[in-house]
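Two records follow; treat each independently.
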Amino acid sequence: MTDEATRPRRYAMAGWRVERFAVLDSTSEEARRRAFAGDPGRLWIVAEQQTQGRGRHGRDWRSPAGNFHGSALLVDPCAVDVAPQLGFVAGVAAREAAADLGARGVRLKWPNDLVADGAKLAGILLEGWSVGPRFAVAIGIGVNLADHPTDLAYPATHLAALIGRPARLREFLERLAARFDERLAAFARGAGFATIREQWLSAAAGLGAPLRATTAAGAREGLFEGLDISGRLLLRRQDAIETIESADVALLGPTAWR
């Protein structure tokens, strides 16, 4: 890898520091390295390409040039026990950023995806670490801006197709950084999660429709009832409501995505 590829461009944007690399192994892995090196946070790490991008449960995340691969590093943003709620903060912000660029009909799929007409547009990954007395978290966001894979087990789409013009990395980051700051302020270190939850539910894919939730204990099907006050999925099965903290979710039926 050349020095040019490993040396980031540094600038400020919407009150954040930004470091943009030509190539990285993983923006979230770079965020982890920065956290343990004592970085104070409020840093966006962005790569034009990733060689080892990852999604939930260690899955590969394809990271070709032209798409958005970024992680926001925050230090002590909230109590550790409410840190998973930052995924909802990021989801609402990413959806608003896409809308700012002209995308319509983008919905939020529990727990961490953005979708449009049943096709995946973006994914979000949270990772956190205790660093001495501090708690650091990286919110990794991958968005198909210019292209999307066509050989996955599920449909995908990209932002340029939704808005009818090219979507540039910097213009998306400008909107994302600004929107994320707004949603972080509303989140108020966890005290304002009720507001974030309401905003998330207003754009939820498949609310009230059937879904399949697959956990380590197996797959269960029911109706997507909503979120509890902590952000856990509520699944109605017959006359009972089950609370699910972590699962892979498939939305079922012709109205599930609306």
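The next record belongs to a different protein.
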Amino acid sequence: MENIINPSLTICIPTWNRGPAALRQVLKTLPFLQPDWEILVLDNGSNLYPEEYKEIETKSKLDSSLRYIKNERNLGFPGNFLACFELTNAAYIQILSDEDFSHPPVVLEALKVLKENPLLGALRGSIGSLPDQNPRNRNIYPDRFLKGGDDALCEFSLTTNYLSGMIYNRTLLVSLGLPNRVELALADNVACVTYPHLYLDILVASACDVATVSEIVCFEGPEMREPETLKQLAQGGAYSFSARLDQFIGFRDLFREICDGKQLGLLIFLYLRLVSKYYHMFHCDISLHQTRGLNIVALHESLTAFFWSATNIPEFVDYADVIRGEFDKAVLVSKRSLNI
């Protein structure tokens, strides 16, 4: 059966070794698709749960609104994320973690907003929780339209690390070459490697209008985590202390590139916001650091010293006193939240 050649929307599900979750989402979402919508399951070379992935593949051969693509090798999360933009002709895409569920009636309304505003590069919808489920990533955003540039960078970028909930104007972003910029950054920016979607969102905010909506565009599904995952992340994964430091510098450098030495006030604001965000990330990662037997107070002091040392860039030379005052406020808030 031939697939839809030019869908208006592709719901992209990048997945790796979580076949039951991907299958559950496909089965739940398929009945509610519009005639010109499709689901694209991007299997990143999985070697677990072959039966579930096979069921998705078999169903895709019988249903034109479902496509299943298995990469010959694991492209890493960034490669699979970028494939969402490359492997469809859709004007718009919604990207979801494989464990979550799209909410098609609200997505349909969101598409109307995007179509009425051709310069709108991305719309971040709210994330809901299903009944009888412990919320993990639930988030209700305000109804807000932000002009590209200062407003969008300050109020839209770095507001969440979570992939699900975003709907992109794929046609506009591809025409501006933004996915290509993400791909190029993978060679030398650790922040992009770990969080390509956040990296893209910053680029989108700098170049396009953006919006957030209070309506729920997706629901978080039951979490799927292998038993050793937390331990692995604590030892040397994306959530390790050293990885967080590299990510911080990666985002700092992206903000420097965007501000281009001409918007120092904006760069200072974004840098201080980045400091606050990574203090928050430190709080979220404490259980991982404790898994390694690390001293949280000493680690927090090291983090503070690192953040301050990262202000040693040419743009900030004449603004050290201003930055220091605001920086100290962020440190105090962080300490209070940790009771140290």
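Discussion point: The chain has two domains: 9-220, 229-338. How would you locate this feature using only the token line?
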